[in-house]
Design goal:
Layout lengths: L11 E7 L10 H17 L2 E8 L3 E8 L5 H16 L10 E4 L3 H14 L28
Antiparallel strand pairs: 1-3, 1-4, 2-3
Helix pairs in contact: 1-2
C-alpha cells in the first residue's frame, strides 16, 4: 500500500484543506482567528516553517515546510483535529487534504494571498485579516530563488 502523501517533509508544500461540505464556518471571525492560533500551537508541537497562509470561509491554504523528522500527514491531522476540538462544533473538515510540492514559492504565496480578492471579500490582499498578507501574523520570510 502506498502513502497518499509520499513526500512528507523537507520540501516546501502548498497545502489545501476544505471544510466539510464546504460549509463557510470561517465566516465567523472568532473561528477564523482560532484557526490561526491553532496553527501556531501545532507548529510548537510539530515543527514546521510557515511561509504564508489564508483562512478562507470554507477552506485553508498553507505554504509550509515540515522539518525532519515530522510528517505532513501528522501535522495537518493535528491542525484539523485540534481546531475541531477547540471549536467544539462537531466535524468541520473533509477527510483528506491536498498538498503540492512548490516549484515557485513566490507564485504560490501570491496565489494564497489573492484568494480573498478573487472571492470578492476584499479589494487588496493586505485588507483580509485572516491571511499572512495582512502583516498581523508571524511567518517565515522567503529568501533566494525558488
Amino acid at each position: 500500500m502506498s502513502q497518499r502523501h509520499p513526500t512528507q517533509n523537507e520540501v516546501m508544500m502548498l497545502v489545501t484543506t476544505n471544510t466539510l461540505n464546504r460549509k463557510p464556518i470561517f465566516s465567523n471571525d472568532a473561528y477564523a482567528r482560532e484557526a490561526i492560533e491553532c496553527l501556531y500551537r501545532v507548529q510548537n508541537q510539530h515543527p514546521f516553517l510557515l511561509y504564508g497562509f489564508v483562512i478562507m470561509l470554507d477552506h485553508c491554504h498553507l505554504l509550509m515546510q515540515i522539518l525532519e523528522p515530522g510528517k505532513i500527514s501528522n501535522t495537518i491531522s493535528a491542525f484539523k483535529s485540534g481546531l475541531a476540538h477547540d471549536l467544539g462544533i462537531g466535524p468541520i473538515w473533509q477527510r483528506r487534504f491536498d498538498n503540492r510540492i512548490v516549484k515557485n514559492a513566490y507564485r504560490a504565496l501570491k496565489y494564497i494571498h489573492m484568494n480573498p480578492v478573487k472571492a470578492d471579500l476584499v479589494e487588496k490582499p493586505e485588507d483580509y485579516p485572516w491571511s499572512s498578507a495582512s502583516g498581523r501574523w508571524d511567518v517565515t520570510e522567503l529568501y533566494g530563488d525558488f
